[in-house]
Amino acid sequence: MIRKQIALAVALGMAGLTAQAAATRDYISIVGSSTVYPFATVVAENFGKTTKFNTPKVESTGSGGGLKLFCAGVGVEHPDITNASRAIKSSEVESCAKNGVKEIVEMKIGYDGIVMANSSSAEPYSLTTKDIFLALAKMVPGPDGKLIDNPNKTWKDVNPELQNATIEVLGPPPTSGTRDAFVELAMEGGAKAFPDLKTLRGLERGSDELKAMMKKLGIPMSIWTAYEEKKGKAPSGKDIFKVVAHGVREDGYYIEAGENDNLIVQKLEKNPAALGIFGFSFLDQNSDKVQGSHINDTEPTFDAIADGSYPVSRSLYFYVKKAHVGTIPGIQEYLNEFSSEKAWGDMGYLTDRGLIPMPKTERMKFREDAMNLNPMSK
Amino acid sequence: MNNPDTNKPRTIDLVNQSLARRYARERRFRRLGLAAITAGLLFVSFLFISIFAKGYTAFWQTEIQLRITFDEQMIDPSGERDPEVLGFADYNILVKTALMERFPDVRKRGDRRDLFGLVSTGASLQLREIVMADPAVIGTTQTLWLTADDDIDMLVKGHIDRERDESERRVNDKVIAWVDALEADGALGSSFNINFFSHGDSRDPEQAGIAGAVMGSFYTLIVTLLLSFPIGVASAVYLEEFAPKNKWTDIIEVNINNLAAVPSIVFGLLGLAVFINFFELPRSAPIVGGLVLTLMTLPTIIIASRAALKSVPPSIREAALGVGASKMQATTHHVVPLALPGMLTGTIIGMAQALGESAPLLMIGMVAFIVDIPQGAFDPSTVLPVQIYLWADSPERAFVERTSAAILVLLAFLLTMNLLAVILRKKFERRW
After folding, report:
1. For labelling alongside B168, which of A156, A378, B302, B320 has CA 20 to 30 A away?
2. Which residues pair with residue A328 across a beta bridge?
3. Of A7, A14, A282, the CB nearest to B281
4. A-chain residues near B371 (CB < 8 A)
5. pTM, 2 dp
């Protein structure tokens, strides 16, 4: 405390500015995912306009970064709410608890689809998750079933029914939540289409069968030892499977185009031969410029994502620090605004921004959690 | 001179022989220089033209003229004109009623939704301001220009292609028909986009403005200036005039030069660790931003100030000392005032650098959505370059032109500051 006072006194003395002490905070502080940011900011703005409370401050830090800040402790200097484009991990719950952040309210807000799109001036693609895996994975099963470096150069190499065009996919870098979700949903789904890889996934931790299967698939044992060194235990079949399925090729066919989805849309417009990976809301806003590829015969539409038939979609969340409700004004009311039908309902203003709402029963459940501040049990 | 070897050419012949080649070489060198400058200018003008071409339309905002009936029953049924009641009345209803009166044929629920979408959600705030300013309008009918929705704005500005198939654009055929009907009536206009300069950030492009970011930049720069100018000048004066020349001052000098070359993101990390985590200053506040940018601009100011002090001739110091001034008097009365224009120039250039900086501010939480315009250095705020970054990443089409417009404003500020530095140097600098 004394440090803070010295710092404040020094800063004030030198800067000669009037200021209120930072010991209290009269606005909600929100951090987290850049995917949830467009939705959280709309709610924050509406909340600020229609209530007597200040407009919450929403920072875009990424899901992981947001949870790190959120779990740093209880008190006005720590954020009250963090947005996430994935569920909180058990390791994060532990680190939260270690810092005294015990009661966390989990709120699911809806779904976001990840689309593969190309310029509207080109022929649309119809892909399966298997095609996507074969086109973008670093290692794919070769003719003898052993994994080899991905030899596919055109979509026709991947699947004879597809266009005879060079594979050129613009996508987000590994730091992005969109990338995480994409590899998890599309690439893993594609990898599971290979029986050997599917078997590999089900094998037990550290078992001899796993070693045998790795040998059969030609997966180097260095992956095993690297995992052991990092985690201090032998890997399970699922861990090895993930390394294989999540590996994106680095030989120029997959191009990391940065986190800015607008940039990818612009590039697609200029280059009709390329495909891009980004969030559904950008497809929705730019439907005159780009078209979404069908994945497993399903077009990325609002309804297909809402009913779960479109395979590459994920849930979006935010987490609330229960200890701050009451000390920071307006948290309860913010939850009320977010979970109201006019916000996240079927016709709510969030759907105008590209959020895909949950089914009514699920909305009711999460609204009840929000109203009673039921902490999650993990 | 008796030169027996007549075969040996004379020096002057050699020179004459090579002259043409030397001239040609000089011409080539000049052309190369000219080409380099042309290329540079070309790039700069390309940058300016493309930003300007994309951004200038954002300074105008499409508006729709509607006849608004300020119904007393809707706004203030009690008739007491209590500001609290007036503030919380539902002005949206007035806009909706006016739109339904203008287009009485629209009956279906879905169509009405589209119809209400013609006007910005901020229109109700416009009406609220009108009533709050002058409650006498209640009960009257006024013809007013209301801000149009961003999709309509984009359509009118030609950023949405009408030729495309209906399913492939954001605005459907019905809405286009309504917009055309309004235009035929002369009820569609555009005016200077005041919102862009008076509002904070918003998720509705037509309501979004740079006022919050400009104020954030202002407070941040004030903190930076108040800290870095005195510290920078004091260190420069000490190092140049008072410090003994030994290996310690050499080390300090090398370090200052090194600091000037440190990537700015490093200062952001330092700010996060020291000011936020250790001193527990608030995140996202201009005070922390200012402190971080102070670290970044200090080397620039120190180096410029030392150069300015060095350029003051020693005779000035010696003359002052000769007439009995103390070392400090010689410095404060003579040397520093003469070096001040150079110091100020360095400071302004450092400030311009700080104004355009965004990387270190990413680390200290200034990449945030902030609607309320900051009122002081401790309020959460963002700065202009960060606002540009945030808008560039927004999905709504109308943010594209606003991003470019914000860049234009930032460039205008930077040019003004650099111009100020040039004028200052031209006007006050003395050469010996």
Report:
1. A156
2. A325
3. A7
4. 44-45, 48, 55
5. 0.78
